[in-house]
Design a protein that fits this description.
Oligomer: single chain
Order of helices and strands: EHEHEEHEEE
Number of helices: 3
Strand order of the largest sheet: 1-7-6-2-5-4-3
Strand content: 25-35%
Helix content: 10-25%
Bound molecules: adenosine-5'-diphosphate, magnesium ion
């Protein structure tokens, strides 16, 4: 059975719903690597995941603070690498967020050095703008 699934969502509400659905599959220490252009739906999807984990606080884009932490069914560390340059990414201690009994969600994960090599098990999720309200969301479950 393929571990790659491709979805088309026709509205932000549908992307939220997909996030809630993925939330049901999550286990402690899972990492979600999100990639895709600005406005492609990464934060909207993260909001859905957080809803699915019972997090009541509003989920915003952590662009200026890099990491925001929430607590629901699991602790969630929401990381956004958008405003970091490569040198910053190199020294960011991402491993400290992994394996702490929670879930790590990383926007702009393709900015992690050596991301291509996919050395770390997790969900690899890419977002593509098809047209104004349509997004293609590809989810690869590369967990152990
Ligand atoms: P990113 O975090 O990837 O930059 P956001 O989730 O912050 O993206 O923003 C997505 C934008 O696109 C929002 O303004 C949202 O209303 C809009 N949008 C339109 N259609 C969709 C869709 N199908 N899924 C998600 N967002 C959508
Ligand atoms: Mg975002």
């Amino acid at each position: 059975m393929s571990r790659v699934r491709r979805y088309l969502t026709g509205s932000p509400a549908e992307t939220l719903k997909l996030g809630r659905r993925i939330a049901r599959m999550l286990r402690s220490d899972d990492i979600l690597f999100l990639s895709g252009d600005l406005g492609s739906g990464k934060t909207t999807f993260t909001r859905g995941v957080c809803q699915g984990l019972g997090i009541k606080e509003p989920v915003t884009s952590p662009s200026f603070i890099i990491v925001t932490e929430y607590t629901g069914k699991f602790k969630v560390s929401h990381i956004d690498l958008y405003r970091l340059d490569k040198a910053d990414c190199d020294i960011l201690p991402l491993e400290e967020y992994y394996a702490q009994g929670g879930i790590t969600i990383i926007e702009w994960a393709d900015r992690i050095p050596n991301f291509e090599r996919r050395l770390t098990p997790g969900f690899y999720i890419s977002f593509r703008i098809i047209r104004s309200n349509q997004r293609e969301i590809t989810i690869e479950d590369l967990r152990n």
